[in-house]
Design brief:
Elements (H helix, E strand, L loop, with lengths): L1 H19 L10 E13 L6 E6 L2 E6 L2 H8 L5 E9 L2 E12 L2 E11 L2 E6 L2 E5 L13 E5 L8 E6 L3
Parallel strand pairs: 3-5
Antiparallel strand pairs: 1-2, 1-4, 2-3, 4-5, 5-6, 6-7, 6-9, 7-8, 9-10
Amino acid sequence: MIRRVIAACAVPLLIVGAACQRTVRTSSPVVVTDSVTGTVSITGTGFEQQIVLRSGNSVVPLSASAADSAALTRMGGIQIEATGTRVGSALRVAHFTAKEVAGSPVVDGVIRAAGDRLVLETANGQLPLGNPPAPLRKMIGARVWIGGPLDKGPNSYGVIVPAQ
């Protein structure tokens, strides 16, 4: 009889006690907006490819959307500035800009037609191309990097995102 009374009192107390416990909260990873400049390096095979940014003695793993990942794979060996959010040691790329190719400065932008001339549309406005390489005329809408004097050439270039 005493056991039944104890059991009858204990069960409601256990239920109330369980209901009063707080849920354990786990903290989410610290996310910080950051900008990193370095040289893009692609390692591995097409199936297990990893894109990293090498800057001095540090290596920053990069992750990006499928479209940006495809563009970044075309940037191997090129110095870029990548902006995004840090999660641990990796950088989730929101945007990147080509800065240097083989130690020479380049300009990153989209090829546009302006009448019979070509211009490079950059984040800072349009830059006229004085003597662009002939293949650029067929790349209207492509995102490219261009090196050399833009006003008179000769220019080197590389495709970041092909024209659609």
